[in-house]
Request: fold
Amino acid sequence: MKTRKALYLFLLTLWIADANAIPVPSLDLPRLIKESDVIVVGSAADGTLGGQSLEDSPDAFSLEPERILQGTLPNTSARILIHKPPLRAGNGEIIAGQRGLFFLKANTDGTYSVVDGYYPMLPLWRHGSLALKDSDDIMDKVSAELIQVLDATNPESISDAWRGAVYGKVDYLVVGEALETIPYAASAKYCRELSQSKQSMNRIWANVCMINAGDFSAFKSIKDALLASSNDDAVVLLTTAIEGHVPPADCVPELSSLLRSSNVQVRRASAQSLREIGTPDLIEPLRSIALNDTDRMVRYYAVAGLEKATGGQEPSIQLFSEREESYMSKWRAWSVPNAQAPKIISQ
Amino acid sequence: MLKRLFDSRLFLLTVFALLLFLPKAAKAQGTFSKTIYVFQGKKVNAVTTWYYLNCDTSLGLGSYSPAVEPNHGELSYADISGPVPGCPKGSPSLPAAAAYYKWTDKTTDATSDYFQLNFILNGQVAEIIDVTVERVVMNISGVDTLWWFNGEQPANYPTQAKLTTSLNNAGPYTWTSSTAAGGTGQVVFPNGATSYTTTANSVVVSATSQSKNPNDVIVNVMSPAGMSAPFNMTVRAPYMLMPEPLERCGNQNACDDPSGDWGYVSSIYYSIYDQLGTSLPSVDIAINEKWDSDLLDDYPGTNWDRGSACGTNEEQCTTYPPRLWKDQIQGQCLYKAGKCTRKQNPEPLHPKTPRGDVAVDHWEGHWSVGSTKPGKGVEVQTNTWQKYQDHARHTNVVSPP
Reply:
């Protein structure tokens, strides 16, 4: 025990000496699961263990287990001691009362260490409104726990102490990103169930999960919510998900409508998706709406999409920046094929 | 005399009329040019022409008349129907004239042919169509999109591709790569040049320069049996960092959280976009930061320090998600909390609302994508890391640099 403390204090002096400014590595939930001896749903307790203060172990905390998703604990109702490396970056700071999904490796002395110092745990709510299904599959179990977090109908999520007192708002992003790394076969049923919610924000979260797997089947149900959306975590993750996948052509009407969203990120994602779809029926929305957008990137996607849909050359951002006026003039003056004038066209 | 004058006036009128109408007649004739690639003996569609009022209404069928016959092949014609190019999905099929070409000459070494068609409407030439024919004996297949990271080769993003021709045992094969007019993309062969000869029917190409337009790289291969149809490629490259504003960050791309170790931890969110405006695929990519200046004090007598740039210490630098990744800036080791052995000047604070304006120190630097080593890869942003007593920000952001 003393050796371990000494080691952590030594590491502390190494890592904590200089303040870092570094990017945070990505979360890889399947790796976390694979490397964990024990995965515990529980709450970080105060700084005591068995009545003994942990004040001299600033990089340890005690955990009150509620249930175990993977592995075993000697005593499922007793607090356990968790070591974690000093905070370098990420979501590694643990505070008393924080409830979550903890990914742990067993030490030989009966204590545990977090598997990843950047992501020692993922936040969970105490109760969810979605029905959890019994499953032997750990991916399935973890998916079910995480989807509860995205179910904002849960009243406890509003008054959760951790959310209110410490961070102001929970970093839902980390949960959304975690679900993104889970194979869709495990998360699909929960995401689809959430997509049936009456709450528009829940449906947006469900679509984040689904679209990240290329599943646009529930996309039409969130059009109205996205038209007037803010930069909520869910919307931001949704726009990045949309940008990462080419929507099916039958989403063109919804994407065209979203070119009028008040949220520039939604407009960018819509214009970019229309560009990628590249079918002729997006010419008119790109010309009449996106081409006149106040945001330069939306105008760029409009021009690139128009060029693509008509067999032209999509410019790079740099080329567009150099010749924006020329492109804009060309497409504003462009005569649509539907114009009432005799025409000849060869191909 | 009058007769001469009359004749003269008539002559002038005739000339005037010719001047008036001839240009119009010429103007009425559009021209259309294209190149087709054909295999010997295989009939291909050379050109199709519609005459229409709008996407739903045809104005009738025209016909073709050869103005210049091909030397090595034969032409045939048919009336077909299909949606007018450029019309919305689901538009009806309208009648169109189609011309077909078949290379029939088996005695020649020629590799190209040419013919000209007049598209006739109501007995008048309405369009002149020039068709250049290139005879090919093989196609090229392979990955058509490569990545370029300024010489770096990060995992998950192919910077090389193996191209294969459809014609085997016909070597030697001479491969050439070129850049389309107005483009900038380039690939080279294993000898580092844009021309290379192989005995096998495959070759590896490496990207050396990013595209300005999609498909601006052209690869061809020639063998004693003949040439290939051109193979177009696109070379993508990281181009810029796009800030990602979040509601929880007050619609900015930077959030500040209190820290028991550092006073505060500020997170600054970005996504990486390529030069064609697409966010990089959702597979992790190496990113690095490089400090371009010393740590410069803003707060008199401050003793705040600065960690190494990501990548200076390999343990601290890895690959990151291209979308919504965050740079995280710690305040300074908290003396009050007993986390470090010296008193800080000034002592870092938890984020205040509104944020404080006590600047402590700053430094210049830039971000590159494609390597974990500082400064390697494609530079995508320059900025200042500005630390305040209760938060930190990127300032003076220039992206692309």
Residues 126-217 of chain A form one domain. Chain A touches chain B through 73 residues (CB under 8 Å). The first helix of chain A runs from residue 2 to 15. The first strand of chain A starts at residue 21 and ends at 23.
